[in-house]
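User: Predict Glucosylglycerol-phosphate synthase's structure from this.
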Amino acid sequence: ESNEMPAAGENQLLMVYHRLPYEIREVNGERKHVPPTSPNGIIPSLMGFFREGRSGTWIAWEEVEKTGSQLRNIYIDEEKYPNLLAGRIGLTKKEVELFYKVFSKEAFWPTIFSFIDKASFNHDHWDHYVRINRLFAEKTAKEADYGANVWIHDYNLWMVPGILRQLRPDLNIAFFHHTSFPPADIFNIIPWRGDIIGSLLQCDYIGFHIPRYAENFVDVVRSLLPVTVLEEQNCTERFLSYSCPLGVEKMPRLIEAGSRKVKLGAHPIGVHTGYIKECYEKAQRRKLVQQLRDQVGENKKIVLSVERLDYVKGPLEKIYAFQEFLEEYPEFHGKVELINICTPPAKGMKIYEKVQQELEQAVGKINGKYSRIGWTPIHFFFRSFPFEELVAYYAVSDIAWITPLRDGLNLVAKEYVAVQGLKEENKGVVIISEFAGVSVEMGYALRTNPYDKRSLKDVLLQAILMEPEERDMRMSRLFDTVNYYDIGYWSNDFMQEMESIKSLQYHF
Ligand code: GDG
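Assistant:
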């Protein structure tokens, strides 16, 4: 029975995302804001909150010419979102590159995914990172009303909660990790581990894709300071816990560390099934799916791989396994084709150059050795397709071969299911890496260990040979899950959890 006044910021949401929810394009010589083309629907879904009576500011960087340039707040789309402003942090191209493309990708990205040999730690770059994080925190502090909700996204902004809490003890701060969260002995190679964990503990709520990452997080905290788990939750219902390397039976839900109580949650992200259905129907009307099928030929199995170029996705391991597959099973020559869509990384990311070279070489070698008129074993596309076309590839493929060495979740698997589940029959098979977060949600997929060529080859063979009845049964069940736990579910669930903390925080 508190007689506290409702907080002024109770219905206010500050979305702290490194990217703005629009792109700036030159249209007839004029700078125009256009919605980004993001198929997974994260941005539209987050935008949705601002149509449900919440007001707020979306905080992100925008490129400016000169360091320190101030940008005023603007409407993103005044008609559609009259209660939403863009709070822009002006950063120069150089500042962004160092913060996002160099430091975050050299120090944090490899560590997060347990590629510790690839990690490098530059202290000057870290100072720059903290400086940029401070700008985000200061901007948020300036925009927030008393008791407002703040939702911060991803490891690029790890230091924001700590700085923000100092500036604004009243705020309800939540954080979501789009990546994995590694085990303690991996995370702790980061020289600034204490600063990062100290900052994260200033959150009220921290979300991860899957329970295992929350458990890893608590292990890291435990390695740095005493921690008590106050609440735990069984996670057998939605998440696999047996014979699944990323599965856990229980996860910590409320912890106490230092003087802080922090709630934790698992929120595997979803896809926008409605939008994907629309794209599928359009692709059908344009006869894209049939065209692809005609080009490949009726009697061939299409194996599809879609991923950003990144060593974390294990592209080479897959290609070499495919090579061995061809060597071992000559009966499939001319009958199985691998379509490999590899989206190039953003310009300026040097760390990906080597893997690109090696990949192109390997594909060239394999095709040179095996292809014949009418059959090329690997179709390698080092480019990005419009989403509708990607959907046509999803629809036409018999197998999605998704084999990252590590992945926070993996949306490609869910998009494939969202498309294949719409088919009446002759549905495809999903092969998913045991080390992609999504594998704990996909009991009806075939799981593979991408570090083991034997496993890659055997599971591929199993998928090729699977009977239509089994394929349809598995895919229908997968579709039910993907359709239910869609992107709307993800964002609402997270929002509900973070808003429920508010009643707790006064007692902390
Ligand atoms: C990070 C985490 C986590 C790919 N090729 C094309 C294209 N794509 C789109 C897909 C999909 C997206 O890119 C890739 O999403 P993933 O989830 O598979 O992987 P990351 O990019 O690494 O994302 C990951 C995710 O964040 C969300 O939290 O799941 O674990 O690493 O949506 O459709 N889109 C188009 N053309 C292409 O050629 N239009």
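The two ends are 16 Å apart (CA to CA).
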